[in-house]
Amino acid sequence: MKPDEERYRKLIEERICSHCIDAGEGGMCHISIRQECAVQRFIPGIIEAVESVESPSMEPYENMLRRIVCESCAHQSSNGKCIVRDELDCALDRYFPLIVQVIEEARRAR
């Protein structure tokens, strides 16, 4: 794992995962064993998507996320539809604006 990746992962866990609706007491993730948190699973792609964009608008970040991460996710169909995202059950989609904020703040602080 790259040093920046580990730093971003820790910041995301502290600032987002600890407040996630799937987190229980003590910040432990309650996503079922059959599932995996998209935020944790796709950290390298998330970082790549965010670092490749610099915009005051969220739309370019979301477009890059769809291209880099969502296209490789098993939940997305060939026509670009994602039932998990459509049902508002994708943690990555739910918290992506906050993730962008965390990564961008960390980048500026470097």
Protein architecture, described:
This protein has one domain. The longest helix has 19 residues, at 91-109. The chain is mainly α and 110 residues long. The protein has helices at residues 3-15, 38-41, 43-51, 59-68, 83-86, 91-109. The protein is globular, with a radius of gyration of 14 Å. The chain has six helices and no strands.
Largest sheet: none
Write down the Rg: 14 Å
What shape does the CA trace take? globular
Topology as a string of helices (H) and strands (E) = HHHHHH
Number of helices: 6
Computed structural class: mainly alpha
User: Could you estimate the helical fraction of the residues in percent?
Assistant: 40-55%
Q: Per DSSP, what share of the residues sits in E-state strands of 2 or more residues?
A: under 5%
Mean pLDDT: 86
Q: Distance N terminus to C terminus?
A: 18 Å
- Total count of domains: 1
E-strand count: 0
Low-confidence stretches: none
